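Subgroup meeting minutes
Present: P.N., E.W., G.H.
Scribe: E.W.

1. P.N. recapped why we're keeping a running log of single-chain structure predictions: easier to compare across weeks, and new members can see raw inputs and outputs side by side.
2. G.H. added today's entry (517 aa).
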Amino acid sequence: MDIRSQVSMVFHLDKCIGCHTCSIACKNIWTDRKGAEYQWWNNVETKPGAGFPGKWEDQDIYQGGWEKKGEGIALKGAGKRKSLTNIFHNPNLPVIDDYYEPFTYKYLDLIESPAGDDQPTARPVSLITGKPMDIKMGPNWDDDLSGTPDYARNDPNLQKLSPAEREAMFQLERMAFFYLPRICNHCLNPACLASCPSGAIYKRGEDGIVLINQDVCRAWRMCVTACPYKKTYYNWHTGKSEKCILCFPRIEAGLAPACMHSCVGRIRYLGVILYDADRIEEVASCDEDQLVDHQLDMLVDPFDPEVIASAAENGVADSTIKAAQRSPVYKFVKVWGLALPLHPEFRTLPMLFYVPPMLPVMASLSDAKNQEQSKKMSKIAKFWDDDWLYDTSTDELWGTIEQARFPLKYMASLFSAGDEGKVADRLKKLMAVRMFRRRETVGDISEEKIRGVFQDTGLTAEMANDIYYLTSLAKFDDRFVVPAAHREQAIEMMNFTGDTKGSTGFGFKEKTAERGL
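Output recorded in log:
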């Protein structure tokens, strides 16, 4: 057993309001430089939607992540041999149009234009070439109702749905969407790290944050190809690759990352997870239908004496172990079983987990007249059938999970490698908490029904109250349990090696003497 610590995150999708405050906070701090205009280390996508960059989930196009090869795994679009053949032409790289060409407006034209009969306009100009351009796409182009049906219908996760299910999701009266915030997953088996020919990408031992050393990066851009989440970007001005650094200077100071600190919906949670590094290869190379279970099994109990002893042998500080015991991420992922990884089939073992959205309860269409009226209003009447109808309405307030507005196939394609049962289990637990709290506050649900729901989901009244508190009432320190930074150990190591400079992995150098250390 090789126990290590990892700073991990949970995003509660039922609480995200799509305000993009997190994206702007990250943009203002990290990517407001020349060459990084198009980069959004944190972005919020609308689902269904093509995402950023377009169709990033379709690895037939981008060849990202790992694939099973015999008893092991291999990089899909990168690696030693593939990197050599693609060194001068990599067809799997996203181009600027897959993101968007960054632009601004010539605002001075509004105030410096000579007097005339026409109203002056501020023409859009490219931030790359400086020339006038036509805006064709932006970072949130498929925002809310997915921009246009052309963008929404390009969502790769819709491919597993039947034609009726796909089209029903775009009926105005049944329109449903949710927001999917994304940052770097700081994976346990990062494909970007494995693909880098120059060894510039590394995973910090103390907290598992994946960084790119700007001094070592040689702009091969294999990391951009290899990352299946497309969270590594190429800076065209500096000739270096860049990515989310999880605001590690803030974490080392005991603060939450900027995107999490600024989150209006309070959807984000951060904490320490302890995992068994001996199992990484075994888990990453297992069969696809076992990926989620095996990844969750890797995450170990921070209260287990054997785990604590093994972690201590690896140099994990007592304060980090205590942070793992208080971690809200551990509760959501392991204790309550509410959160799942995004696209586990990429085999990178991502350390960002999502609580699937329940979405609002729908009204019931009970009488035949309303059903007939809906058929007439629908633009897809050919999919309505007397024998079978994709109907998401319910006869009571607490409908079954199978009647949710989003088909389980779609949610399973995102969060469980196609296993609908795992998504259904999470949604049933969320529904059980709602029902329990409604009984506590309104009292119109019988105690017998609550007992039955708890028996089906494995929850207890205490667990339901804890979930309710951490979801709805939690204070800042409950949502972000940041481990203490032991800078004195890093200084001892630097003194031992005789190195007076430290590299942040993002290109910033400093002398310890200048910091008064």
